[in-house]
């Protein structure tokens, strides 16, 4: 994402595909570090679908990193929480790093740095895992050719492009 100054001098934020992200220019913005995983198995990518109120788009599993976690540990924890799979990074090297601005719940603006790790998942879904229906709508292995820029969160679409999958 990029920050740009408009004609009136107000700040506006633009996602990696050029879409403007709404911001009122005065509200506080919270910072966060986020980590996502890129896993391909049998030619399909592990994805989660956002809830309809957040756009209903596909995205890579992941989320906020806790203060006491390394980035890759946060990515693995978030992958397990969202999908039930245990993520194993193939390398400490990143697939992608992006900035993102978004409006969260309760009208809070967020500015995050998102790190995407590539790896695999160990085995099948944890039998004790249950999907959090308050966070995501669906977990699926998706053929990359079935994803589009319109159906995939923009920063994750860019990560898929950098990985050569779309």
UniProtKB/TrEMBL annotation:
Record PROSITE patterns: NUDIX
Record's keyword annotation contains GTP-binding: no
Superkingdom of this protein's organism: Bacteria
Gene3D superfamilies in the record: Nucleoside Triphosphate Pyrophosphohydrolase
Sorted UniProt keywords: Hydrolase
Domain Nudix hydrolase: 30-164
InterPro entries noted in UniProt: NUDIX_hydrolase-like_dom_sf (IPR015797), NUDIX_hydrolase_dom (IPR000086)
Pfam families recorded: NUDIX (PF00293)
Keyword Hydrolase: yes
Coiled-coil ranges (or none): none
Cofactor(s) listed in the protein's UniProt record: Mg(2+)
GO molecular function: hydrolase activity
Protein's name according to its UniProt entry: Nudix hydrolase domain-containing protein
Source organism (scientific name): uncultured Chloroflexota bacterium
């Amino acid at each position: 994402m990029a920050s740009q100054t408009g004609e009136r001098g107000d700040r506006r934020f633009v996602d990696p595909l050029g879409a403007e992200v709404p911001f009122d220019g005065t509200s506080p913005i919270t910072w966060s570090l986020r980590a996502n995983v890129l896993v391909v198995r049998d030619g399909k990518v592990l994805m989660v679908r956002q809830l309809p109120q957040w756009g209903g788009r596909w995205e890579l599993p992941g989320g906020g990193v806790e203060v006491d976690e390394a980035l890759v540990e946060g990515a693995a924890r978030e992958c397990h929480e969202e999908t039930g799979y245990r993520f194993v990074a193939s390398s400490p090297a990143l697939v992608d790093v992006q900035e993102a601005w978004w409006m969260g719940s309760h009208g809070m603006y967020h500015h995050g740095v998102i790190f995407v790790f590539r790896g695999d998942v160990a085995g099948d879904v944890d039998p004790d895992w249950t999907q959090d229906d308050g966070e995501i709508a669906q977990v699926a292995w998706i053929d990359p050719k079935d994803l589009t820029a319109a159906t995939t969160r923009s920063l994750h679409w860019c990560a898929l492009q950098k990985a050569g999958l779309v």
